[in-house]
Amino acid sequence: MMYDFLVDLFGNSTLADIIAGTIQSILPLFVFILPFALFAVYLERKVSAHMQDRLGPMRTGWHGWKQTIADIIKLIQKEDIIATDNDKLLFNLAPIVVFVGSYAAFAAIPFSSYFIGTELDLGIFYIVAVTGLVVAGILMAGWASNNKYSLLGSMRSVAQIISYEIPTILVMLSLVMISGTMSLHTLSEQQTGYAWNWYIFGGPGMTLSKFLLIPSMFIGFLIIYISTLAEVNRTPFDIPEAESELVSGYHTEYSGMKFAMFFLAEYANMFAVSAIVVALFLGGYQSPIGYFGDLIGASWMIPIEQFTWFTIKGLFFVFVQMWLRWTLPRLRVDQLMTTSWKYLIPIAFVNLIIIGLITLL
Amino acid sequence: MAIKTEEMVLNMGPQHPSTHGVLRLELALEGEIITNVIPHIGYLHRCFEKHCEAMTYPQIVPYTDRMDYLAPMGNEFGYAIAMEKLLGIQVPERVEYIRVIMAELQRISSHLVALGTYGADIGAFTPFLYCFIDREKVLNLFEITCGARLLYNYIWIGGLSHDLHPDFVRKTREFIKEFRPNLKEINDLLSHNRIFIDRTANVGILPIDTAINYGVSGPNLRGSGYKWDIRKDDPYSIYHKFDYDIPVGEGKYGTVGDSWDRYYVRVLEMEESCRIIEQALDQLPEGDVQSAIPKRIKPVVGNVYARVENPRGDLGYFIMSDGSTSPYRVKVRAPSFVTMQVLNELCKGYMVADVVTILGSIDIVLGEIDR
Amino acid sequence: MKKAEEIFQLLKDNFPASNLELKTDQPTEAIIIASPLEIDKICFFLHDAPELLFDDLMNLSGVDEPKAGLLAVYYHLGSTKIKHKITLKVSTDRNKPEVSTLTEVWKSADWHEREAYDLLGIIFLNHPDLRRILMPYDWDAGYPLRKDYENPEFYQGMKVPY
Question: How close does chain B come to A337, measured CA to CA in Å?
Answer without folding.
Answer: 14
